[in-house]
Amino acid sequence: MANESMKTGADLLIDALQKNGLQNIYGVVGIPVTDFARLAQLRGMKYFGFRREDAAVDAAAAAGYLTQKPGVALTVSAPGFLSRSVRPPTESIGRRIWDWQLPEP
């Protein structure tokens, strides 16, 4: 980053994830989250790609359950986005969906 004082939302999110000990992201990348995934990898995070959103969310949930830290799933808002992200209230593994986009250059 050329100007350290000028941080983007992606920089802030990556900083927050890393400060909380999260190093893995599971997901399906595409526009608008491709740039975020690349930046996260450049900053030392590991990205595990999947073909389907539900598999990525399940992997993040399993990783969160095993590590007792939040699992991070990164997907685009495609038709499968909510297929496994919304569970009945009796589900023991909680999920939070953040829908955000990087600003266009």
Description of the structure:
- The protein has helices spanning 9-19, 34-42, 53-67; strands at 24-27, 46-49, 73-74.
- It is built from three helices and three strands; from the N terminus they run αβαβαβ.
- The chain is an alpha/beta fold.
- Helices cover 33% and strands 10% of the residues.
Overview features:
3 helices, three-stranded parallel β-sheet, 105 residues, alpha/beta
- What do the pLDDT scores average to? 77
What is the string of helix and strand elements? Answer: HEHEHE
Approximately how much beta-strand content do the residues carry? 5-15%
Helix residue percentage: 25-40%
Low-confidence parts: 87-102
Q: How many β strands by DSSP?
A: 3
How would you characterize the largest beta sheet?
3 strands, parallel
Biggest sheet, strands in spatial order? 2-1-3
State the secondary-structure class.
alpha/beta
- The span between the termini is 15 Å
Shape: globular
Radius of gyration from the alpha-carbon trace, in angstroms: 14 Å
Helix segment tally: 3
